[in-house]
Amino acid sequence: MSAELYLLYLATLGAFFLGPPDSTELLTISNAMRHGLRRSLYQIGGDLSANALQMIVAAFGLAALISSSAVAITAIKWAGVAYLAYLGLRMLLSRGGGGPRAAAADGAPRRLYAQGFLTALANPWAVIFFAALFPQFIDAGAPVLPQLLVLGATYLIFDAAQLLAYGAAAQAAKQRLGWLQGRALRRISGSLMLGAAALLASKDLTDVKGTN
């Protein structure tokens, strides 16, 4: 891969990540406000792990199989929607939050990692997106695997940077708004998760842009 081709790839990713927040970004904002940026790193790690898995699936040429199975896509999509909606409604309907023990359980590393992983995995279009994106920037005259590794790692770096930026901004906003505690915080966090569910639900079978 030439330097010019790689720079074009960077520009493409830059334009892509300038889009509005998607389901994973809203989930990151919610977790950073409720548990802090450090805890939300587990959720970000789950998202990146799911994206890496989707890249591997795309590299093995399974994107065509996935795109041809509308039933599988629909099932994965609505399972993710239901999961996010459940998390959001549980926060909104919770009166006292269950005390410190329940809050600590909600912020457990495994639970946050699972949230990030399952939310990203619930978007099956990511596999199709990677399968369509990467070949545009691969030099056919050079070994393919090293190029795929570079393209994939670069995407994950962009994704991580964006999620960290959203998380840091959310944590800073909470610190500035000292009143944002207890029920008010749960309502905002729950609403953000319902928003993430709505964004995922709004995607149709032809939408392959959003991968987060």
From TrEMBL:
The keyword Cell membrane applies. It comes from the Bacteria. InterPro entries: LeuE-type. GO terms for cellular component: plasma membrane. It is found in: Cell membrane. It is a multi-pass membrane protein. Keywords: Cell membrane, Membrane, Transmembrane, Transmembrane helix. The keyword Transmembrane applies. Its main location: membrane. This is Lysine exporter protein (LYSE/YGGA). It comes from Candidatus Rhodobacter oscarellae.
